[in-house]
Amino acid sequence: MKAQLKAMKEILHLKDQETKKKQGSPTCSPFSMNISTNTMSIVFMMVLFFILFITVYAFSALYLAVQKRFPSKHTEL
């Protein structure tokens, strides 16, 4: 049990050292990944259209379910 605890502490210590090394280099910053604006706009447009499509589908399904449950009665015929 003590050997496992010691090994775990050593692993954590090594991970801390690796993260300190990575933080020191400017190439490993979290903002170093560049995505073009065209790619981001295409992704956002696709997500927007997907959300709008799902919304229209959900409301149409809800409308049809309500129409099926409560049909309108025409008395003029």
Layout: helices, strands, pairs:
Elements: H1 2-24, H2 37-69
Can you offer a commentary on this structure?
- With 77 residues, the protein is mainly α.
- The model has no long low-confidence stretch (mean pLDDT 84).
- The chain is built from two helices and no strands.
- The termini are far apart.
- It has one domain (2-27, 36-69).
What structural category characterises the helix and strand content?
A: mainly alpha
Assembly type of the chains comes to: single chain
Q: What is Rg?
A: 29 Å
Count of domain modules: 1
Q: How far is it from the N-terminal to the C-terminal residue, by CA? A: 86 Å
Quote the beta fraction. under 5%
Please work out how many helical segments DSSP would assign. 2
H/E element string? HH
What is the overall pLDDT average?
84
Number of strands: 0
What is the 3D form? elongated
In short:
The protein has 77 residues and is mostly helical. It has one domain.
Short descriptors:
77 residues, mainly alpha, 0% strand
